[in-house]
Task: inverse folding
């Protein structure tokens, strides 16, 4: 991906230099954060009990609150990269909203953190993975996830990382359009299996919107290099529910899927890229996912 030397976004809240951001509330992780905790814990064998148990307590990081540390060179590079990708999403979605929605786009803030942070959707750690919190309209990302993406999930390349950012911003797009609130309201009144099925449609639409972003980013900035699309599609495949469950030594159970299969995630990303049309991303009306 061609990103060096290009404009970065001002909508970055970088918490990575803060070590030990105080206590994060337990029992408060909601929405996609909760899903992410359960999935990451299940697939990688991480004990997620501290994030889910109630009782009004909290968990404390190893360093005292208020301590800071210098960012490593790798972290600085990751921060610059994310800032450029975020800036691209802002310009692209502003254009798309003018052309296809007929209203202005209000960009999200992206919070970078290390190990642990807090959000209105609850406490988060690196184990939760990237997530979007509609309560404060912010996306949250521990940049160490890029290493996990490459080394543990087999999704290599800078455009794979860009796809992760674009996917979370796509949830903000859904929030701006009122899709996310409507879908979550229905999920709250549904059975677990029905809620999971709605979650899959939410996530696949975000994949499709990510594909639209990639198409516009190429046309507007010439950002995509040979092999970039393959990196994004590979990332989508590597984080499909069926693939993750197999790699965890489990038989895939479709009724537990919350993000979609590898084939579905890759196909909906390409649907967005090939059409550039938001109406083509209506996963909620699709008979076949």
Result:
């Amino acid at each position: 991906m061609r990103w060096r030397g290009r404009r970065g976004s001002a909508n970055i809240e970088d918490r990575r230099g803060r070590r030990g951001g105080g206590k994060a509330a337990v029992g408060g992780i909601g929405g996609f954060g909760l899903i992410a905790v359960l999935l990451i814990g299940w697939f990688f064998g991480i004990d997620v009990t501290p994030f889910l148990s109630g009782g009004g307590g909290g968990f404390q990081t190893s360093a005292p609150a208020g301590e800071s540390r210098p960012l490593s060179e790798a972290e600085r590079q990751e921060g610059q990269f994310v800032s450029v990708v975020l800036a691209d999403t802002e310009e692209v979605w502003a254009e798309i909203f003018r052309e296809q929605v007929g209203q202005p786009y209000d960009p999200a803030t992206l919070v970078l953190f290390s190990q642990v942070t807090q959000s209105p959707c609850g406490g988060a750690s690196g184990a939760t993975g990237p997530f979007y919190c509609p309560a404060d309209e912010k996306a949250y990302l521990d940049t160490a996830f890029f290493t996990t993406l490459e080394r543990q999930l087999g999704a290599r390349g800078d455009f794979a990382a860009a796809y992760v950012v674009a996917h979370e911003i796509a949830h903000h797009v859904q929030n701006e359009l009122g899709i996310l609130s409507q879908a979550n309201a229905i999920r709250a009144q549904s059975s677990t299996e029905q809620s999971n099925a709605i979650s899959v449609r939410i996530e696949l639409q975000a994949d499709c919107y990510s594909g639209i972003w990639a198409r516009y980013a190429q046309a507007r900035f010439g950002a995509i290099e040979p092999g970039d699309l393959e990196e994004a599609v590979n990332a989508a495949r590597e984080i499909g529910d069926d693939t993750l469950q197999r790699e965890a030594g489990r038989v895939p159970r479709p009724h537990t899927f919350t993000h979609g299969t590898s084939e579905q995630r890759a196909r909906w990303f390409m649907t967005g890229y090939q059409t550039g049309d938001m109406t083509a991303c209506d996963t909620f009306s699709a008979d076949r996912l």
